[in-house]
Amino acid sequence: MYARTGRGRNTTGLPVTDRSGRTIGRIVGREYQKIVVREDQMLRSPPGFGFDAWAMEQLVLPRVDWVTVQCRFNDRHYRISTADFRRYHLAIDRGAGLQYVLPLTYWQETSGAAPAPATPAATVAPAGRPAPAPPVQGRLF
């Protein structure tokens, strides 16, 4: 089910709820976004993320191209295409209803910080020589 947009919270995208009415993620464009706030919201065996099977089949997977998970406790982002999600998910039921679990090995992982820029080829020194000192910007005024 799609929920009404919440007031005072992140209202970007279309909220997705499970059958009990609890918001479990959002559809933003062609991407499903799930936010994990606490470490205990991540599965330990197998290590990965769980998704409500009914919501994923009925509401999410037919409408998106990417599934993303944002972990706020370790500032990491995980992303996978829906085709790979369908191929590699595991169906489990541990008492909270049928869930799809995708182990961490299948996710593309990035940290929340911007990646470090690549070293330009001009500053790489040949073996046996020290690298040249980087240029220093002096004061302009």
What does this 3D model show about the protein?
The protein is mainly beta and 141 residues long. The chain has a domain at 14-111. It has two helices and ten strands, in the order βββββαββαβββ. It has helices spanning 53-60, 82-88, and strands at residues 14-17, 23-28, 31-36, 43-44, 47-52, 66-71, 76-81, 90-93, 98-103, 108-111. The strands form two sheets. A six-stranded mixed sheet has the order 1-2-3-6-7-10. The protein has a four-stranded antiparallel sheet with strand order 4-5-9-8. The radius of gyration is 21 Å and the shape is elongated. 18% of the residues are buried.
Name its key features.
35% strand; six-stranded mixed β-sheet; 141 residues; 2 helices; mainly beta; four-stranded antiparallel β-sheet; single chain
Could you list the spans in which at least 5 consecutive residues all have pLDDT below 50? Answer: 113-125
Strand count, sense and barrel status of the largest sheet are: 6 strands, mixed
Mean pLDDT comes to 77
Percent of residues in helices comes to: 10-25%
How would you spell out the order of helices and strands? EEEEEHEEHEEE
**Alpha carbon gyration radius:** 21 Å
**Multimerization state:** single chain
Proportion in β-strands? 35-45%
Number of strands: 10
